[in-house]
Amino acid sequence: MSDELARRDVKALVFDVFGTVVDWRTSLIDDFSAWGKEKGIAADWTALVDAWRGAYVPSMDAVRKNPEKGFIKLDILHRQSLDMLIERFGIKGLSEADRDTINRGWHRLKPWPDSVAALTRLKTKFIIGPLSNGNVALLTNMAKNAGLPWDLILSAEVFEHFKPDPETYLGAARLLSLEPGEVMLVAAHNYDLQAAQSYGLKTAFVPRPTEYGPHQKIDFEATGDWTMVVRDLADLADRLGC
Amino acid sequence: MSDELARRDVKALVFDVFGTVVDWRTSLIDDFSAWGKEKGIAADWTALVDAWRGAYVPSMDAVRKNPEKGFIKLDILHRQSLDMLIERFGIKGLSEADRDTINRGWHRLKPWPDSVAALTRLKTKFIIGPLSNGNVALLTNMAKNAGLPWDLILSAEVFEHFKPDPETYLGAARLLSLEPGEVMLVAAHNYDLQAAQSYGLKTAFVPRPTEYGPHQKIDFEATGDWTMVVRDLADLADRLGC
Fold it and tell me: Do A127 and B143 touch (CB under 8 A)?
């Protein structure tokens, strides 16, 4: 029944990106390992990547809890966390340009194997776009690098609020000139779907059980009553008749 | 020299849309004439389209001059003007659904013959997007209908300001994480380029001498010292080495 509901009502699919569409952890570890080897810079890149992602939610929460200080886009939060971690990990010999290259690793993330083909199919029947905490330039560059065929870029930066603030989900519907129930969030994270559902969006869970590698502790399966629960994005395209 | 300057500095090309990328006048006249014939609704569709476009700048100026009343997206301004003109032209028998169909004619505009192929070439070397007074849904639907291969949608609606307000040009650079001088506005209208240049963007003029049909009075040629003056978008792609 939920497939029919989605097929009937939904006009736009908006996607969480980090973890849902792209494999940030493997991408960054591979990218930095190759780059470090070429540059002769030794570091435990895997540990750096995991610690960097660990700083992600706290860095956004600091912005969300201090709105009087203004919105800060993710590229800048990433860079602040990176500088702190380079210090903590004692990585030596990184110039300003090197730090910028590392920070832009998030612009070079690789899609999961099913993502590009499935998005291309979904685009034939739906408006598709990211709805991500990544900033507009990050998401735009990522799409060009990875071949993600978005119709438009929807970003926390446009709404000056990070997910799971309501301004993001409701802002996406507003810019699309759609009712919240005509928009479906596709995500690998139950907390994101929970928020979207509470503001009236439809929801699709896709498991990405290797997102955090050996550190994955949650989101192996759907924990809420989502509109759809799919195996991967190809399954989503199948079930939506694309 | 200006071609070299643009090739060296510019990272993103943002496009005026109505008149520059799409032929709104012929598209709307053809669309409404065919639809009116099918529905048996008689009207001077050409006169309606010309009058409707005539109401465009005044309707945005009313929003620009009364910011305390809040921003109003173009679909709504178009609809207000349309309702007024249906009355004035004495067009009978239009239901609410009919009026919505006519209003969405702006979502169905057809590109000039050179647009899609040239944008596809330009996309290989530059970030490309509209920078239009059209709202996000209008521009997104138009791109899907017309096959415009934008990387992202930049709209007055996102900035809550219409061109030529500075918030639009500078907002585009900000969201792209670029300096104004790394962004080039491509437009068929000298006033738009004048504003963009005054805020530090690079500029490219493309003539569209049939945009207003027999009513075209200006913009047959470049009237400012723009970064580039091209024959059409294919010429722009040639000269930018795409």
Answer: no
**Which structural domain, as residue segments, surrounds residue A68?**
25-108
Instruction: Give the CATH number of the domain where residue A46 resides.
Output: 1.10.150.240
One domain for residues A172 and A214: yes
Which of B177, B178, B182 to probe the A interface (max A CBs under 10 A)? B177
Same domain, A72 and A148: no
How close B73 gets to chain A, by Cα (Å)? Answer: 10
> B208 and B125 in one domain?
yes
Interface test with B, best of A152, A160, A176 (most B CBs within 10 A): A152
Q: What is the pLDDT along chain B (242 residues), one digit of tens a residue?
A: 678 888 889 999 999 999 999 999 999 999 999 999 999 998 999 999 999 999 999 999 999 999 899 999 999 999 999 999 999 999 999 999 999 999 999 999 999 999 999 999 999 999 999 999 999 999 999 999 999 999 999 999 999 999 999 999 999 999 999 999 999 999 999 999 999 999 999 999 999 999 999 999 999 999 999 999 999 999 999 999 99
Residues B219 and B120 in one domain: yes
| Whether B83 and B159 share a structural domain | no
Q: Which of B143, B144, B176 sits opposite A137 (nearest CB)?
A: B176
Question: Residues A116, A225: one domain?
Answer: yes
- Decide which of B108, B126, B141 is a domain's last residue: B108
ipTM of predicted assembly, 2 dp? 0.96
Render the burial of B208-225: b for 16+ CB within 10 Å, e for the rest.
Answer: beebbeeeeeebeebeee
Buried b (16+ CB within 10 A) or exposed e, A17-26: bbbbbbbbbb
| Domain end call among A86, A108, A130 | A108
d(CA B159, CA A201): 24
Nearest to B140 among A139, A143, A151 (CB): A151
Inform me whether the C-beta atom of residue A135 falls under 8 Å from chain B C-beta atoms.
yes
